Amino acid sequence: MSIDSLLQPFQHFGVNLGLSRIVNLLATLGNPHHQVPIVHVAGTNGKGSVCAYLSAVLTEAGYKTGRYTSPHLVDWTERICVNEQAINSDKLCELILQVQTAINPNEESPTQFEVITAAAWLYFAQQQVDIAVIEVGLGGRLDATNVCDHPLVTIITSISREHWQQLGPAVAHISREKAGIIKPGCPVVVGSLPEAAQKVVISRTLELKCPIFTPKPSRQINQNWAEYQKIEGSQFIKYPLPLQGQIQLHNSALAIAALEILQKQNWQISEEAIINGMAKTKWPGRMQWITWKQQKLLIDGAHNPASANVLRHYVDTLNTKNITWVMGMLATKDHGDIFQELLKPEDKLYLVPVPDSNSADLEELAKLGTSICPDLNFCHIYQDVFSALDAAFSATDNQVVLCGSLYLIGYFLAIS
User: Which end of the chain is more exposed for a tag (fewer CB within 10 A), N or C?
Assistant: First the structure.
């Protein structure tokens, strides 16, 4: 039996925020989440790479480290890792079956995300991990990961307007949801936030008497190395930075700040472990260079205005005059704001569907793209990502970038 077929029955429950179902499910399973010390990471963007840095360093430091992230790019098993190794497919099927037997047929059914989250907690408890790095799925307060009363460290990477359909229309609403992972007395590491979001988060930390840390972004030393100033004092750590884009100076600083807090809690994490762990960090599908049909292709899952801004900033550093965008987006995204961040005069836009997803209407996207940037060199719709890439590479010397949805990137990586 495949993981997909086991999870299929829960798919139609969609996003249904709330903690009662997951709490009941975990209780029936023996509360595995109570056996696992965690670092809990929320944010609009950057949370995945922060989890990747933390997991790599803690593994390097000799701790048996769980990592739970979402969504996956190619395979469900990517979401649940121990010491950087994805769970075995057969083991994940076994865990999902175990979770299914714990579901009370007389109660509201858990969502697909709640089932896979319960499987992750179960796996980490069975593996007796020393620590787990847990990424929030959506929001925070009512997210299925938000079941631990006392995380070692809580991190909020960034806050911008995304998933507003579920979290509320304004940044202040979204901030309240993300700040919902903050727990009484637990240290909080916070990234650079808009003023409205910062007020909400600081107010919550004061209310719950939490120490709050806002590390400075690291400083780029050369192409591959950065320097982080410790939270207290004037000491610095120089470390390699394998992930691309200036935003990683922010994200890596948040991860190292959290590691500093763990050190104060007597976790044995040497500077050498930080340096080697950072060097080994991988986070595929985000600002990643690959070779496709002997051509250099940049792929990135940028799927909201803030991540589109980061991607545009990065491609502007590449000394390439114009960009050829091969893009697919989900119907639920802020298409206009994303185009506004990405498109510049003389760029080319190749629009494609996102397979097996609620893909945006391509005719509408084409109209919107040309109205937002009337000076596009080219805008056209293609049946699929591969015909668009073939056309893009044969028609241009521009840098080609594939982006717009992690689901599109996952589909591309699975097939190419």
Answer: N
Amino acid code (one letter) for 240: P
Q: What pLDDT score was predicted for residue 56? A: 98
Burial of 193 (C-beta count, 10 Å sphere; 0-12/13-18/19+): buried
Q: Residue 19: CA atoms inside 13 Å, Cβ hemisphere, count? A: 14
pLDDT of residue 1: 79
| pTM: predicted TM-score of the whole model, two decimal places | 0.93
Residue from 108, 93, 112, 124 nearest 30 by CA? 124
Q: Is the pLDDT of residue 18 over 90?
A: no
Give dist(CA 219, CA 241) in Å, integer.
11
The closest alpha carbon to 76, from 99, 54, 93, belongs to 93
Is there a contact between 110 and 103 (Cβ–Cβ < 8 Å)?
A: yes
Integer-rounded Cα Rg, in Å, for the chain is 21
For residue 230, the tally of other CB atoms under 10 A from its CB is 14
Q: How far is CA 54 from CA 45, 79, 175, 191, 193, in A?
A: 16, 15, 23, 15, 21
